[in-house]
């Protein structure tokens, strides 16, 4: 309980919320993330004492569910811009969005990606409205458009630093569209200034925003380190597998391919293409092989589904195609292995409650203990240190140690007999015999 009160929110009062928001406005001390989502999350935790892990999980997931509902509404509005005369195509796609396993896993993950998805969909909706007006020749540049564009860009950029890639890709496509529809004169400066103002908003909302661009060693090593060519091919394969596992499943892709080959008029919404490019590029740079880096743009990849359903003119075939797609999206979430972030306790974590001896937690960086806190017992005293002291370790003890500490050397030098029990996040776990 004492540890959780130090690491978790321990002042649920409004005064405590305002205090934390003020400090997060200056710095969240994690340069991979901004304060946007975590400020909302902090407000959402006002009220109850939040050292109980179940309370934290439930409240965090409820917040993400609310963000998901808002994303659903915006996605519905986006579909209306493209397919307002095809209700079957719209509701088929909405159903797929509702049961997309990548979206479900993302909603269960108490991190900024649900908010990121909402902001990306809002920006996609706004860009679609702009381009549609350009096609009709009725688009006008004014202060209202400038402010809306800047605020939405800032909202997207504040949800994560990889969103810079999405904004860059969308910007290139947008410049092509304004050139194509004869809005380039004056338009290039208008959108460039919108981006600059958006960055200013980011700084006003988060004083340490630009520190996040200092670089990430993991990305640098991946791109420039030894074996980068093989990692490049591995990233491409990872991208394809993640898309097929989390967003567009193989049976659906095969059906869409058949429709595209057989029927003419298969026109995919233009906002799909920058989303596709973004998901590809971001996986080339992402430090981990996980869907969370591209899940924000995943709903836009689903736009190939209404495009296929819409081009079918035979009502019977259209209903059959829609039904087959819906069935696939119904089945995929039924398999537990397809859903991430289920908060299931692994057997190795049960050793944190082993009372047969002392439990030692040895780490190189103190924040890593956060992954163990949810499984720590209130009635157990833990020996927590950043230094290995073999003299304090006895038979029956349990040792959690981070990767950077060489426990094998300690075994040889001090005659300790460790039984390896497995790995848990950053920690290797041993039982001393």
Compile the SSE list and pairings.
Elements: H1 2-7, H2 14-26, H3 36-44, H4 53-83, H5 87-99, H6 101-108, H7 113-136, H8 143-158, H9 163-180, H10 184-205, H11 217-224, H12 228-246, H13 250-262, H14 272-285, H15 298-301, H16 304-311, H17 315-331, E1 359-362, E2 382-385, E3 398-402, H18 407-414, E4 418-424, E5 427-432
Parallel strand pairs: 1-2, 1-3
Antiparallel strand pairs: 3-5, 4-5
Helix pairs in contact: 2-3, 4-5, 4-6, 4-7, 5-16, 5-17, 7-8, 8-10, 9-10, 9-14, 11-12, 12-14, 13-16
Helix/sheet category: alpha/beta
Mean pLDDT: 89
Roughly how many Å apart are the termini? Answer: 29 Å
Helix-strand string = HHHHHHHHHHHHHHHHHEEEHEE
Main sheet: strand order: 2-1-3-5-4
Shape: globular
Give the radius of gyration. Answer: 25 Å
Number of helices: 18
Biggest beta sheet attributes: 5 strands, mixed
Regions with pLDDT < 50 over 5+ consecutive residues?
none
Beta-strand portion reads 5-15%
Number of strands: 5
**Helix amount, in percent?**
55-70%
List keywords for this structure.
single chain, 433 residues, alpha/beta, five-stranded mixed beta sheet, globular
Descriptive account of the structure:
This protein is an alpha/beta fold and 433 residues long. Helix content is 58%, strand content 6%. It contains 18 helices and five strands. The protein has helices spanning 2-7, 14-26, 36-44, 53-83, 87-99, 101-108, 113-136, 143-158, 163-180, 184-205, 217-224, 228-246, 250-262, 272-285, 298-301, 304-311, 315-331, 407-414, and strands at 359-362, 382-385, 398-402, 418-424, 427-432. It has a five-stranded mixed β-sheet with strand order 2-1-3-5-4, with no helix packed on it. Helix 4 runs antiparallel to helix 6 (101-108). It is globular, with a radius of gyration of 25 Å. The protein starts with a helix and ends with a strand.
């Amino acid at each position: 309980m004492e540890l959780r009160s130090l690491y978790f929110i321990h002042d649920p009062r409004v005064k405590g919320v305002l205090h934390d928001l003020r400090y997060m406005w200056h710095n969240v001390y994690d340069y991979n993330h901004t304060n946007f989502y975590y400020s909302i999350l902090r407000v959402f935790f006002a009220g109850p004492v939040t050292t109980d892990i179940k309370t934290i999980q439930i409240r965090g997931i409820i917040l993400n569910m609310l963000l998901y509902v808002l994303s659903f509404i915006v996605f519905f509005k986006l579909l209306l811009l493209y397919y307002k005369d095809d209700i079957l195509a719209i509701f088929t796609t909405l159903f797929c969005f509702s049961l997309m396993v990548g979206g479900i896993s993302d909603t269960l993950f108490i991190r900024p990606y649900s908010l990121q998805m909402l902001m990306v969909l809002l920006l996609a909706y706004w860009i679609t409205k702009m381009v549609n007006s350009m096609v009709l020749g009725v688009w006008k540049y004014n202060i209202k458009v400038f402010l809306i564009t800047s605020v939405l860009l800032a909202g997207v950029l504040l949800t994560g630093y990889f969103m810079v890639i999405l904004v860059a890709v969308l910007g290139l496509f947008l410049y092509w569209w304004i050139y194509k529809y004869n809005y380039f004169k004056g338009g290039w400066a208008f959108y460039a200034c919108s981006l600059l103002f958006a960055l200013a908003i980011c700084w006003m909302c988060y004083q340490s925003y630009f520190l996040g661009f200092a670089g990430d060693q993991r990305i640098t090593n991946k791109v420039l380190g030894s074996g980068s060519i093989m990692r490049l091919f591995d990233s491409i394969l990872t991208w394809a597998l993640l898309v097929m596992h989390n967003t567009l499943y193989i049976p659906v892709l095969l059906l869409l391919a058949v429709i595209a080959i057989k029927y003419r008029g298969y026109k995919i919404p233009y906002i799909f293409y920058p989303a596709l490019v973004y998901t590809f590029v971001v996986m080339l740079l992402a430090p981990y092989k996980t869907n969370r880096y591209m899940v924000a743009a995943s709903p836009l990849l689903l736009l190939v589904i209404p495009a296929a359903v819409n081009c079918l003119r035979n009502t019977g075939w259209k209903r059959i195609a829609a039904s087959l797609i819906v069935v696939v999206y119904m089945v995929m979430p039924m398999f537990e292995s397809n859903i991430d972030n289920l908060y299931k306790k692994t057997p190795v974590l049960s050793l944190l409650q082993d009372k047969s001896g002392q439990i030692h937690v040895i780490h190189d960086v103190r924040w890593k203990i956060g992954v163990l806190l949810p499984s720590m017992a209130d009635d157990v005293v833990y020996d927590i240190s950043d230094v290995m002291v073999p003299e304090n370790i006895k038979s029956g003890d349990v040792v959690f140690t981070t990767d950077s500490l060489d426990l094998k050397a300690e075994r040889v030098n001090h005659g300790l007999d460790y039984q390896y029990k497995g790995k848990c996040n950053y920690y290797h776990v041993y039982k001393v015999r």
